[in-house]
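Reviewer comment 2.1 asked that we show a complete input and output for one of the modelled complexes. We chose the arginine case, as it is the one discussed in the main text.
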Amino acid sequence: MLTDILYQEIKELSKEELLLTIEIPKNSDMGDFAFPCFKLSKVYRKSPNIIAQELAGRIKLTEAFEKIEVAGGYLNFFVNQAYFVGSVIREVIEKKNDYGRSKIGEGKNVIVEFSSPNIAKPFHIGHIRTTVIGNSLYKIYDFLGYNTITINHLGDYGTQFGKLIVAFKKWGKEEEVKSNPIPALLKLYVKFHEEAEKNPQLEDEARMWFKKLEDGDEEAQVLWQWFRDVSLEEFNRTYNMLDISFDSLAGESFYSDKMPKAVKMMEELNILQKSKGADIVDLEEYGMPPALIRKSDGSTLYITRDIAAAIYRKETYDFYKNIYVVGSQQNLHFQQWKKIIELMGMDWAEDCIHVSFGLVGLEEGTIATRKGRVVFLEDVLKRAVDKTKEIINDKNPNIDNLEEIAAQVGIGAIVFQELSNNRIKDYTFSWDKALNFEGETGPYVQYTHARASSVLRKSDIEVTADIDEGVLTDGVTLALIKLIQQLPEVILDAQRKNEPSIITRHIIDIAQAFNRFYHDHPILVEDEEVKRARLAVVFAVKQVLYTGLYLLGIKAPEKM
Ligand code: ARG
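Response of the prediction step:
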């Protein structure tokens, strides 16, 4: 609305940029919306204040606005409240699930790589962040019209598989691996390291077996395939709980036959240097340690596979953006990798984006399940579901489909918590926090959605866009509607910054504003006009909460 008005006079900024520049002043004396002119100052080479004054003279306001005022480089817009409220509510009612959706991504391919656990290793609490941040980013990009491709870059290759093969051949039991794959494989891996301390020759054996695997040896291949299959079965249980699937499971192994080409390219470009028989890229000039590309026995490394993967992805998907959702421990890896791709002359290197996130620490004394200090993601989700079941049983024992709702709420709680903080912040996992459903949590937002659903169920009239907006102009209602109006912009902002927590915080604000509205305004009142108008607000709130939760990868039950 305001964007279109501004765009008529300001062609130098895109509509998207204009939208993201608009602010909501804290104090409504300063208007309902404000447009700062500081960015334009560089473009027009004039002071923001003068630009604001000139624009104020030229801008043609629509009915939606009452007036514009200029204040120190800002244009302050005062809305015609009834008109504003009416048009927002009508737009939501008409567009429903499409409210906030856009086409800005049309024709652009975006890869979102996320989760990427390692075969034969636990899918643990540290993976939860990449998994839920990545899934949410995928939904956000998809909602904005991008063609998305989701990739799970499984850690299914590397020298550790040589170790695993050796360990299994020496000490492994097929039955154990079959009945409880990951713990059994993990045990073998640990045993290998213990034994290798005493007998370093085992390391050579492991290297040899990995080499065999790379060379296509049948025995090595069969074992590797089996480790991969049983691991994936376990991972899939967790993905099913989270309702996550991938377009591609091309993990590290997928690039085994694509690396020679990449390495050859580096050779031809003279980027590789010999160092003690190995091939490295010297990155000293860029303030980074050298990157090892090929060991002296010819075997390749994690970074080699990432280089081959990027080239393959460009060739296969011609991506607009290639996003990697991976923790901050790998910042250096991704910096080195990107520099190497740049040195290889790939002008699309800048379209490869490492979306980093903070570490997950375990709180002192955290009781991990099963053996060892590993908290399995699956156990966290299960415990959250169990606790939710108890709570619902206390409050609402007669509810239908308890299992389904408990799963939606319990898992939603975990996911929401993960997406509440800025992704870059480190945080400490604690069972208490994860299972606390009070305050600004997922269950609170879901509960607000269910409350809105319940009001709509109880009403005897159908919600339509035909309302008398004049009854919706009190401060509490207006504040709520402004937040609803902002959702499309919030989604764009979340995409720009690859930051789902922007949506998380916004839907908490909406839920709180709605609960204030609900507290102050009875909905199902005698007066038909008032009832119709308030029901329309309830409908709009239910819709935006649904959409917000959906974009975070969280279900919105109708009852709970
Ligand atoms: N498998 C790795 C891990 O669990 C993450 C892979 C990240 N993706 C990549 N393209 N390097 O630490």
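Residues 158-243 form one domain. We note this here for comparison with the apo prediction described in Section 3.2.
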